[in-house]
Amino acid sequence: MSVETRLENANPLIYQRSGERLLTAEDEDEDFADPIDDREIFDLIRSINDPEHPLSLEELNVVEQVRVHVNDKESAVSVEFTPTIPHCSMATLIGLSIKVKLLRSLPDRFKIDVHITPGTHASEQLTNSSQTKKESPQLWRTRTYWKW
User: Looking at residue 11, what is its pLDDT?
Assistant: First the structure.
């Protein structure tokens, strides 16, 4: 008896990965306090695996550097992600994966906002509001108890 798995998006478009970030001497200097920037956040989330395909979120164009915004002075990070199809049932899981990765990687001072790119998902408002509701004690515990 075999179990058949049906993919929602069996043939997704695959995009070229962007190049690696070029590190400067200041980036490698532990005594130099450099602010967290858009590229640093993008580098943290670009390699997260898609829950449905053996590809990264960057390779599926779910996350792009232009949709990452950081205000280091105000300790705010905003990430928009674009599901591969308008009815993607994995959108909530993808958003939570991004948020948990950032919660585990960034200092506690940061407020993290992860949401679907406007107009790209049929249940965008519901999915975005569930991201906020899921920012309950379970998510905050990930910062304290789980390590990546």
Answer: 66
Q: How far apart are CA 129 and CA 106, in angstroms?
A: 23
72 exposed, middle or buried (CB, 10 Å; 0-12, 13-18, 19+)? Answer: middle
Find all residues with CB under 8 Å of 110, minimum gap 6, and list them: 36, 75, 76, 77, 102
Size (the chain), residues:
148
Give pTM, 2 decimals: 0.75
Place of tokens 């858009």: 38
What are 71-108's pLDDT values in tens digits?
999 999 999 999 988 998 899 999 999 999 999 999 99
Closest CA to 53 of 93, 21, 19, 25: 93
CB-facing half-sphere around the CA of 12: CA atoms within 13 A: 23
